[in-house]
Amino acid sequence: MVAKLFRLTGETVTVRSRALLPILLLLSGFCGISYEVLYAKLLGNLLGDQFTISAVVLLTFLGGIALGSLYAYRFVRWLWAIEAGIGLYAATMVAAYDGIDRLVYSWVPALGISVAACAVVSVVLLAVPAFLIGCSVPLFAAYLSTLRSRHVFSWTYGIYNIGAALMVLTMEFVLLRTLGLRSATLALALLNVAVAAGLLLLVRSVPMIPPPRLVWLRFSRRDLGALALASVGSAVFQLMMIKVAEFIFGPYNETFALVLAVVLLGLALGSIAAGRLGLTFGGALIVALTGLTLLLASLPDAVEIYAGLYRDAVKHYPLLVLLKFGLVTALMGLPAIGFGAMIPALLKVHRDVARESGKLLFVSSIANVLGFVLMAFVLHRHFDYGPILIIVALLTAAGLALHAGAKRATAWAGAVLLLFGIVAQRQVWDESLLYFSHNIFQSTQRLEKARNTHFMADRFKGHRDVFAIIHRDETPFFFINGFVGFPLSSVSETMIGALSSSFAPRTDTALVLGVASGATASTVGLIFDHVDAVEINAVVLENLFRMAEYNFDIENLPSVNIVHDDGIRFIKNTQKKYSLIVNSVSKPLYFSSSKLYTRDFLESVSSRLKPDGVYTTWLDRKVGDRGIDIILETLKGTFENRWLTYLKSSYYLLV
Question: Is 3's pLDDT higher than 50?
Answer without folding.
Answer: no
